[in-house]
């Protein structure tokens, strides 16, 4: 996933495998002019959340203005993922970095169950998340 805007753009991939040849979690990072977007797909659970947390912390350190989490490819979202998402939001608030989230159906279900859709600035599309964050 590459965000096409003027300014710095880079991409890196990280896979955490569940079974041989099948990644449980894929994270793609794009950067452009103070914005970092993480495209996350697969399963977010106790086994994969350390990799997710490392990417989130790095993005929040490097993002000058906003971090958008595209979780539209997430097919399982456990309690560990919810904790990581809430911690990212809290750290973003401390650093002055806006955090937008594009949830999949699985993520939306968990957010709705706990009434947290507004807490994490859940948006229906990446474009909506970018607009929410002033892009």
Topology at a glance:
Blueprint (H helix, E strand, L loop, with lengths): L10 E9 L2 E11 L2 E10 L4 H14 L3 E12 L1 H17 L2 E6 L1 H9 L12 H7 L3
Parallel strand pairs: 3-4, 4-5
Antiparallel strand pairs: 1-2, 2-3
Protein name: STAS domain-containing protein
Pfam families: STAS
Organism: Amycolatopsis deserti
Number of strands: 5
Name the strands of the widest sheet in spatial order: 1-2-3-4-5
- Number of helical regions: 4
- The percent of residues in helical segments reads 25-40%
Low-confidence stretches: 1-13
- Largest sheet descriptor: 5 strands, mixed
CATH topology: Transcription Regulator spoIIAA
Query: Which structural category do the helix and sheet elements fall into?
Result: alpha/beta
CATH class equals Alpha Beta
- Overall mean pLDDT: 84
Radius of gyration (Å) = 14 Å
Elements, N to C (H/E): EEEHEHEHH
In whole angstroms, how far apart are the ends? 17 Å
Tell me what portion of residues adopts beta-strand conformation: 35-45%
Shape: globular
> What is the correct CATH architecture?
2-Layer Sandwich
CATH level 4 superfamily: STAS domain
Please give the domain count: 1
Organism: Amycolatopsis deserti
InterPro entries: STAS_dom, STAS_dom_sf
Protein name: STAS domain-containing protein
